[in-house]
Amino acid sequence: xxxxxxxxxxxxxxxxxxxxxxxxxxxxxxxxxxxxxxxxxxxxxxxxxxxxxxxxxxxxxxxxxxxxxxxxxxxxxxxxxxxxxxxxxxxxxxxxxxxxxxxxxxxxxxxxxxxxxxxxxxxxxxxxxxxxxxxxxxxxxxxxxxxxxxxxxxxxxxxxxxxxxxxxxxxxxxxxxxxxxxxxxxxxxxxxxxxxxxxxxxxxxxxxxxxxxxxxxxxxxxxxxxxxxxxxxxxxxxxxxxxxxxxxxxxxxxxxxxxxxxxxxxxxxxxxxxxxxxxxxxxxxxxxxxxxxxxxxxxxxxxxxxxxxxxxxxxxxxxxxxxxxxxxxxxxxxxxxxxxxxxxxxxxxxxxxxxxxxxxxxxxxxxxxxxx
Length: 372
Ligand SMILES: Nc1nc2c(c(=O)[nH]1)N[C@H]1C(S)=C(S)[C@@H](COP(=O)(O)O)O[C@H]1N2
Ligand SMILES: [Mo]
Hints:
By secondary structure, this protein is mostly beta strands. It is built from 5 helices and 24 strands. The strands form 6 sheets. Strands 5-4-13-8-9 form a 5-stranded mixed sheet.
């Protein structure tokens, strides 16, 4: 387990997220929301920049587990024809793919909920994009031979502890989460060994973690050691007591696990309460399994909207940068808002939906700036 001092040292030399070697700018300090276990977010103004990439957010519920790399095994069991056990050396011999994937914590932006709620009070920086190298989960499942009775794949990490706050855990629990077979078989679901071309760091789940393209971060189980193919839906702590939301089924609010990321945008420049003299507004947008279709910006608190320019190709699983030039502004205090729409035509809502409990905070959140 990394101590507080150890973390601050690594943060200072910029290796928290496996900094790209060619980067010359020093890594910015991540904003630490909790020291033990470490929970830290990227400062909003560097999101989507090479500096921001060096301090990808960290979300851990338990201390980093101690992993003995020689004794380490990945076990595949349950409703399979041939249960598997891989050493790290065996696993590293399997063919890998590299994909750019943006991950957002389901609790990102929680600090903007009113009234205040419990849980890590993230601003907008519990989101990050990296280039992940790993083995498609499908390849490992195919080796094991998934039985026809299988409905889900449970991923279990090596970390464990108790959840002391309500709802309390039944004693010591591990971190475990499931995927339906269909998502487990998708090419965007990886067992990642590397992040940005380097072996995973301890905080990001070394030696092996899941990365589930398009889904909120909670699906990407870190320090992965066991895969259980299950013939009924998994009801573990992290998809019932936590990371669940209400869906209206036949009009009845029904608790279901949180899955795909909803369309969202953040303004990265200017930042809230900043004095500005430039008229450029910049930001990022993402839409989970969908692509971003467009982003609109309002400089008058939502009365009128102008289309922003996308600064790259919008693709599923990735974020896209955008910018917009405001008309010339007099000295004034203005309210800026951004609103993204996905390829299904779904836009960020203007108000908060309580069925999402304290997660999936994707409604439009205004910022206020002073034009100088
Ligand atoms: N084993 C384990 N995996 C985990 C977690 C955890 O606490 N333990 N946190 C999850 C959550 S809620 C998120 S948002 C992502 C964060 O991944 P990161 O720390 O690499 O950014 O990891 C997920 N995987
Ligand atoms: Mo999360």
